[in-house]
Design brief:
Helix content is about 70%, strand content about 0%. With about 525 residues, the protein is mainly alpha-helical.
């Protein structure tokens, strides 16, 4: 692609400038993706250097440290206690005792069972007293995987704490050799609510993120490498086991499933659902954005009366729970619903319109209904931003002879895009995972017969997130495939987010509107 200089770019017509910008954006995507892989490789190298430097520092500390430091390598906190830092040393020692006790009593068992995910499933045994067979439940694959992950995280936490213990001994030796005094327990407590208060305050939410966000993500990723489903629930029926990359091969396999003909492969089904998901996210984001902006501009316009009333009416759509409003709207547009009934009674149509029966009609309808849901949000957001645009800019534009459209394209829109760029990105990714609108309106309908025979009951309006949900339902409950879809969704969303985020004007040129 030809690169224009600033002078050459100014000579282009408006259409040529727009085409040049669009072409530049798409041509930059491969470069950005390549840059991500380069950044990932640099991150790996950086991680390797960090590990190497840490290992060298640990060895140096052991060799050059005194006997208290050497003992602390085995008995955490010993050096702190021996040097008078009783509270700090006892906390290190307590953590080590708890860790060793857990590993002996439970952790070792969970780790030993993790490679197999269980050896003995449910068995039938005979009760001579009752003269009947009863089921004995033995290993639980789900618990083994869950507690195995917890144990691994606990080990990582112990290794980190042990490293902090070693570093504390090295620092204590250095302070004492310089003739200074070490911090006492009172000093540590005072520091926690003073200069280290930020760390104290963040410890609880960080722990919550680790337990309730990071660990479930790791667990979900591991499920993708098992055969966990309705027939292998890990306890009540059969144990589930590791299957390696088989699930990814199944999902990304282009071979047609049994039956041939119009039946789609898993990869074709995923591609079709992904393409509709991206299309939905694009229209759901930008229709709401521009229409919400125009509504806000119309209400803010001088001379408009009852501004508060119009805003209140629009906000009512947010106040009503979507579970109620969307289900009601879904019934309104049904074949025998109010909309079709009204149009037929007026004589405008001779037969009911297939709002939910025809794929094209269904997709257009959900996009239009989503506009009704999304405009109030954007109206509220853009109202505040519009009020902050300096009035002098519009006054100067009017003096220079700019018409309303020129004022919008040269002042309002650039300012709005600059301020709301990150919001647009998060809105786009949020719409890719917009479960409520699709599931409550159509449930994914109408059904796609070819795609459904490949993996679950797939509909023409199903997003990846609703398809993922359907895969986990029913007797089969293919949790492993749902996990694979979840991972692929994350990869797609992450790539789009990283590429777009790095080309946003509000990120690249932060000072433009300051």
């Amino acid at each position: 692609m030809k690169k224009y200089s600033d002078l050459e770019y100014l000579k282009l017509s408006k259409g040529q400038k727009l085409l040049y910008k669009i072409t530049s954006f798409f041509c930059a995507i491969p470069q950005k993706i390549a840059g991500l892989f380069v950044a990932l490789w640099n991150l790996i190298l950086k991680g390797y250097n960090i590990v190497k430097n840490e290992a060298v520092d640990i060895w140096t500390t052991f060799v050059q440290g005194d006997w208290k430091t050497k003992v602390s390598f085995l008995v955490m906190g010993f050096g702190n206690i021996a040097r008078g830092q009783i509270l700090r040393g006892l906390l290190f020692l307590l953590f080590e005792v708890v860790f060793i006790g857990y590993m002996i009593l439970a952790g070792g068992y969970w780790l030993s069972m993790l490679p197999s995910l269980g050896k003995v499933g449910p068995t039938e045994e005979y009760d001579f007293v009752l003269d009947a067979y009863y089921t004995v439940y033995n290993d639980n694959s789900f618990k083994i995987l869950l507690y195995g992950v917890l144990t691994i995280f606990f080990i990582i936490g112990f290794v980190y704490t042990w490293r902090v213990n070693v570093r504390q001994n090295k620092l204590a030796e250095k302070i004492l050799k310089s003739g200074k005094k070490l911090k006492s327990g009172k000093d540590d407590l005072r520091s926690m609510v003073d200069d280290k208060f930020h760390a104290t305050l963040l410890s609880l939410p960080l722990t919550g993120i680790l337990i309730f966000t990071v660990m479930p993500i790791v667990f979900m990723i591991l499920v993708a490498f098992t055969n966990y489903d309705g027939a292998h629930d890990g306890y009540y029926s059969n144990l589930f086991t590791w299957v390696g990359w088989d699930n990814f091969n199944t999902m990304l396999n282009w071979n047609v499933a049994k039956g041939g003909g119009s039946v789609q492969s898993y990869a074709a089904t995923f591609g079709e659902v992904l393409s509709w998901t991206l299309m939905w996210a694009f229209f759901a984001t930008f229709t709401n954005y521009f229409l919400g902006m125009f509504v806000a501009m119309a209400i803010n316009k001088k001379g408009i009366k009852l501004k508060k009333l119009w805003r209140t009416v629009l906000v009512l759509t947010i106040a009503i729970p979507q579970f109620i409003s969307l289900l009601y709207v879904s019934k309104m547009f049904a074949k025998n619903g109010i909309v079709n009934g009204f149009l037929m009674s007026m004589g405008w149509i001779s037969e009911a319109l297939p709002f939910w029966e025809d794929p094209t009609w269904a997709r257009i309808t959900v996009i239009l209904i989503n506009i009704w849901i999304g405009i109030p949000h954007l109206m509220l957001i853009t109202t505040g931003i519009l009020m902050n645009i300096p009035a002098d800019l519009y006054e100067s534009a009017r003096i220079d002879g700019a018409n309303p459209w020129q004022q919008y394209t040269k002042i309002t829109l650039p300012y709005m895009l600059f301020v709301t760029g990150p919001y647009l990105l998060t809105s786009f990714t949020g719409n890719m995972n917009n479960f409520n609108v699709i599931y409550l309106l159509t449930g994914g309908a109408p059904t796609n017969p070819a795609a459904s025979s490949a993996a679950g009951t797939v509909g023409y309006t199903d997003l990846l997130i609703t398809w993922l949900f359907k895969i986990t339902q029913g007797a089969e409950s293919q949790y492993y495939l749902a996990s694979v879809v979840g991972i692929l969704v994350f990869v797609v969303v992450a790539l789009i987010s990283l590429v777009v985020y790095n080309v946003l004007p509000s990120i690249k040129n932060e000072e433009d509107f300051q």
